[in-house]
Amino acid sequence: MIKKRILITGGAGFVGSHLCERLLNEGNEVYCLDNFFTGQKRNILHLISNPYFELIRHDVTNPYLIEVDEIYNLACPASPIHYQYNAIKTVKTSIMGAINMLGLAKRVNAKILQASTSEVYGNPMVHPQPESYWGNVNPIGERSCYDEGKRAAETLFRDYQHQNNVHTKIVRIFNTYGPRMHPNDGRVVSNFIVQALQNQDITVYGKGEQTRSFQYVDDLLEGMIKTMATDRSFSGPVNIGNPDEFKIIELAEKVIAMTKSKSKIVFKPLPSDDPMMRKPDISLAKKTLDWKPKVELEEGLDKTIAFFKELIK
Ligand code: NAD
Ligand code: UDP
User: Fold this and answer.
1) The pLDDT of residue 272
2) Using CA atoms, how far apart are residues 180 and 176, in angstroms rounded to an integer?
């Protein structure tokens, strides 16, 4: 028997495709909605023949009606290169996408979870970042279309819950990596691995002293599913990320060592508004969801390197 009917917007993307696969494997009917801006059919090809999987080509900036029990709202380009490509469209996707999906949740009485981001903290003045921190975001910079779009989406989630009694959840996702990242999306883990496997220069921006905390995709899925399973008394926002913090230069060195690459590190200018540090405080997730990440960086990198080796051979 089918457990739940679940809509995943952005389901053909990196995180979304893993979520589709996992929720299908758990016996649910999964509707994957995507406009294929950064998502790819290749990511979900292996699911297409499953009769409980449906692919919907649609843009979340337009309303969509479907009877479902749960909605995971992931539709939004996530890498700086992609979200800056058409900044206005990124804002529209976050805000109109949130309005359309919240409207749907209201109409069909579905639970809805928003894939928010650590970018809502901007270049943080508090370290590590707890959910209570309001952030330090430039409203008119290179990253604003993404950061402010996601912040406004959080506001909408909160207001639909308070005003219309929609059952909402917000997860703030910290840097996540794993197989099916787009090889050209410019994010640091995919860039470094692809460069290392091809013995090309490893492009470290700035001095590489800035930090990030990298979470393997399986840990994120577990955190999202546990958040969705909570009752109405919990709506988040909740940080889902791995608190192990690394300098970008350390990541470059690790990737070179793990791939036994001949690549050299080269230094490029630091993009504007690039946050200098990022590390989640995950006390809330531990306490409320009984969740913490399990996959160490080297284990996750191993799997991701294997994926890219296969992809670019
Ligand atoms: P991704 O780019 O691989 O996936 C995004 C998906 O959304 C793609 O399939 C894309 O085609 C689709 N999409 C974009 N605009 C759309 C629109 N207007 N209508 C319908 N579909 C649309 O990125 P990802 O890393 O899988 O990220 C998924 C979600 O998680 C995003 O909302 C992102 O902001 C959030 N997130 C990701 C990370 C991370 O490190 N991966 C960190 C924080 C937040
Ligand atoms: N970065 C880098 N080289 C690259 C790509 C990214 O040094 O080829 C840096 C980037 O400047 C940032 C960090 O790595 O400080 C993480 O970048 P990413 O785009 O993956 O994520 P975000 O900045 O959104 O956290």
Assistant:
1) 87
2) 12
Please list, in sequence order, all residues whose beta carbon lies within 8 angstroms of the beta carbon of residue 247, skipping any fewer than 6 positions away.
Answer: 208, 209, 210, 211
Round to the nearest angstrom and report the end-to-end CA distance of the chain: 41
pLDDT digits (tens, 9 = 90+) for 264-312: 999 999 998 888 999 999 999 999 999 999 999 999 999 999 999 999 8
Element (H, E) at 33: strand 29-34
Residue 185: its pLDDT value, please?
86
Q: Kindly state the tokens that stand for 164.
A: 């219309």
- 3-class SS of residue 244: coil
Residue 256 pLDDT level (bands cut at 50, 70, 90): very high
Residue 1 has pLDDT above 80, yes or no: no
* Phi, psi for residue 251 in degrees, rounded to 5: -60, -45
Which protein residues are within 6 Å of ligand 2, measured from CB? 79-80, 175, 186-188, 191, 203-205, 210, 212, 248, 271, 274
Alpha carbon distance 91, 262 (integer Å)? 40
- Domain residue limits, the chain: 5-179+217-243+277-294
Residue to mutate, 38, 79, 104, 279, ligand 1, most ligand atoms under 8 Å from C-beta: 38
The mean pLDDT of 21-40, rounded to a whole number, is 97
Beta carbons within 10 angstroms of residue 183's beta carbon = 15
Instruction: Tell me which DSSP letter residue 88 carries.
Output: H
The token duo for 311 is 């992809």
Find the mean pLDDT for residues 242-254: 96
pTM, two decimal places: 0.97
Above 90 in pLDDT, residue 148? yes
Query: In the CATH hierarchy, which fold is given to the domain comprising 5-179+217-243+277-294?
Result: Rossmann fold (3.40.50)
Residues with CB under 6 A from ligand 1: 9-10, 12-16, 34-39, 59-61, 74-78, 82, 93, 97, 115, 117, 173, 175-176, 182
